[in-house]
């Protein structure tokens, strides 16, 4: 029995006549379920679907099985608590408008990829009343999307909610002096044309400088002209390299005049609405080169006889909400930036220096406003209670991680010696208790060392190091996690709107892919809808110290979902926490500022709380700041790639130890562990054999030999080509292919798949 779905966005998907005829045993078809999910993205949870089709009792169990089958088949994916078609656009998406159709209607693509195929096309609706935003070609917009029924037209229509600020007319380029004495601007992006600069517009630029230029209108003949606005520095300097990433990713890096003026006019906070905690010896423990300090800690034994062996841990966080109020120029600019961006030799801050490095930085010996949480833990690490306080504090000491650790290890200095017994040892005693709670919680424990680039005074790379992971780092991390949990719990208990930090469990498709891969190594991963981090930890523990330890860590990492911000809570899978919100870094993350405002409003802690207007916009804000976080990560990664490429440009033909960091049909990505840099080896250079890509085993192997290369293999490579401005390197493989783990079964399976694909109509097998 089939029935037509009306296509309405909400409510019962049946017509009135159909509802009257439905029998009690009616069950919708798979196509009807999929259509309903596509047309009702806001009402696509299991309960919503059951209610829409009037399913009860056993029919709900049947529906649950159908939905699980659709997820196992890769047709549906679970996003938070809602189901969605794999590759479908979210209901609210960031779009880039690229052109118009034959009728003049604007067309857009999603700014971020969805699925693995061609990006869907979205036709943009423009308000007929003229009251809504009026976008144009080249704009980036935030829009609500709706699937269409027209198979020959765009897959979606979009209603614009907001137009993102356009980039300035300035573009980036390399200033070049030609042999005839004329000046040219060499492009650093492919789409950018070459430009001519007249001498009067040189503005002090010299050959090889990275410059910002303002292009003039193109003439009918010859290259367009431009004038130099700013000289950013030599191409060999880090400042220039990071500036390329700043421009390429549209990162706002210059504060508008009204924002600077507003920050300079701010007056220091007073004791109004605050408790006086200036006698409490809170200390900051940060990297040695930190310029702002937004968290301070203190701990003491709990003297309550009902809590033997317990501790009281206190975390105080800079009260940014005291200075950055909703709707001000400071607030608008902070939201636009979303977060600070950290490059090896510079920071693009979320807030002006007057706020971030002065008024809000918890400087040693200076009065500073803070929002503090006092948490009581039992001896087994279980949190018994917590309370939030708006305070005035005075940091007793500014410490670096190695400095604090050295004191605990028996080598105190002039600053740590006087506070060793009264402050530092109680902190480490409290950390020992918090570690017990962490061990019981069993968060995901991946072994992925971080690298840090050390620069010379001229901004070029000196060396790349892996900083030692100290207990001092882990102490601060665990204190901050507990403070974040307390913030989420308080806001949830008060029914106060907030932005959670959420991390979904791996999708069923990724779980199955990981399971197939582990089988090639003789390892098993249990099936089940409710995966736990402990199951992954069990796998990681089994390979600890083995040859494939790095490989398994890498594949488990790639199976994980990406954390993001959301006003709806699905918990944090990686940390194994039911509720979690970022509270501890409001100087550098807008999400934390929202949480601070929520706590101030919910607990009546004075001015600067979350407003109703702001609370109503949290879904849009969460999308924006999740995007700015991804933008920052990409810019930071690109800058490191360019720096390392420039550093190695003089070492063409040198040999390097490398690890395979990616496997594709077209070749191998390799990483140089010493530098943390990636390069590529085209499959066409691997030798005379025809290499087959085995997605399950993450490998390429020869059709004739059955030998090949697998993700995380250690190999030797030769550097053959470097493009520093693009951060790209090409290598040649020097290590012979080897038999792969589980190669007999994987070889025949993948070879069969490859041959089948070559015989399908329209398939194109390539021999390398």
Which descriptors apply to this entry?
30% helix; 18 helices; disordered N terminus; disordered C terminus; alpha+beta; 768 residues
Can you tell me about this structure?
This protein is of the alpha+beta class. It is built from 18 helices and 33 strands. The strands form ten sheets. The chain has a five-stranded mixed beta barrel. Helix 5 (238-248) packs antiparallel against helix 17, helix 10 (420-441) packs across helix 11 and helix 11 crosses helix 15. The relative contact order is 0.08. Residues 9-24 have a biased composition (Basic and acidic residues). Residues 1-24, 734-768 are annotated as: Disordered. Belongs to the RNR ribonuclease family. RNase R subfamily.
Give the topology, please.
Elements (H helix, E strand, L loop, with lengths): L15 H6 L8 H10 L6 H7 L5 H15 L3 E4 L2 E4 L6 E9 L5 E5 L11 E4 L14 E8 L8 E8 L7 E7 L5 E5 L7 E3 L11 E7 L9 E10 L3 H11 L8 H9 L9 E2 L6 E4 L8 E7 L9 E8 L10 H9 L3 E3 L2 E3 L4 H7 L7 E11 L5 E12 L2 E4 H8 L11 H22 L10 E4 L5 E5 L5 H23 L6 E3 L5 H13 L12 H10 L6 H10 L5 E3 L23 H14 L8 H5 L1 H31 L6 E10 L2 E6 L4 E6 L8 E4 L4 E4 L5 E3 L3 E10 L4 E6 L9 H17 L9
Parallel strand pairs: 5-7, 10-12, 13-20, 14-21
Antiparallel strand pairs: 1-2, 3-4, 3-6, 4-5, 6-7, 8-9, 8-11, 9-10, 11-12, 15-16, 16-19, 17-18, 19-20, 22-23, 24-25, 26-27, 26-32, 27-28, 29-30, 30-31, 32-33
Helix pairs in contact: 5-17, 10-11, 11-15
Q: CA-to-CA gap between the ends?
A: 53 Å
- Characterize the main sheet: 5 strands, mixed, barrel
Specify Rg, calculated over alpha carbons: 29 Å
- Portion of residues in beta strands equals 25-35%
Sheet with most strands: strand arrangement = 3-4-5-7-6
The oligomeric state of the chains shown is single chain
Structural class by secondary-structure content: alpha+beta
Count, helices: 18
Kindly state the number of beta strands. 33
Would you tell me the overall average pLDDT? Answer: 84
Basic shape: globular
Low-confidence stretches: 1-23, 743-747, 755-768
Helix percent band = 25-40%
